[in-house]
Design brief:
single chain, about 170 residues, alpha/beta, eight-stranded mixed sheet, 4 helices, globular
């Protein structure tokens, strides 16, 4: 099971408050597509697996806060991607990347102090799209990460589509 509520515990690069917000964004996106708690998300790409999803109850206040579908979709996707990276490859987000680097977060081992950058993570979300849209977005994001290839660290791309829901996880 992937529980978006776990994000409220925080991670090295996600405060508990931001984690709650990411969980709320994911919940709003999932429920906007008619999903109920316990819905399965299919993961494809470097792993093929399904997880049951659980999320916080959506309130009117959350829907008003996350009324911009583009912002809600992007942040909801980040929440799911963070949980998937921890589950699938054992890395957590250890720092937000700066604009222009071609990726969103540095990944590393949560127990490795001081934190060491071990991989890059780029995330994107689609509120409702088909396989063609999903595959095109994955290609776009993989290309985007080339800007920071000089790091010689693996780049992971996670694109979350909320309509099915499904997540495509790729490494380059």
């Amino acid at each position: 099971m992937l529980d978006l509520g776990d994000l409220a515990n925080g991670l090295p690069a996600i405060s508990p408050a931001f984690g709650r917000y990411l969980a709320e964004a994911g919940a709003v996106c999932l429920e906007s597509q008619g999903h109920v708690k316990g819905k399965e998300i299919s993961v494809q790409g470097i792993h093929s697996i399904e997880y049951f999803l659980h999320w916080p109850d959506v309130t009117d206040q959350m829907e008003r806060c996350l009324h911009d579908p583009e912002v809600a979709t992007e942040h909801g996707a980040v929440g799911i991607a963070v949980l998937l990276m921890k589950r699938l490859i054992g890395f957590t987000v250890i720092q937000r990347s700066r604009k222009g680097t071609g990726f969103d977060y540095w990944l590393g081992d949560e127990t490795d102090m001081p934190f060491q950058n071990k991989a890059r993570l780029e995330v994107s979300g689609i509120r409702n799209g088909n396989q063609k849209v999903l595959k095109a977005r994955v290609r776009e994001k993989l290309t985007q990460t080339e800007v920071s290839d000089e790091t010689r660290l693996p780049a992971y791309v996670v694109v979350v589509e909320f309509g099915q829901p499904l997540a495509e996880v790729r490494q380059r």
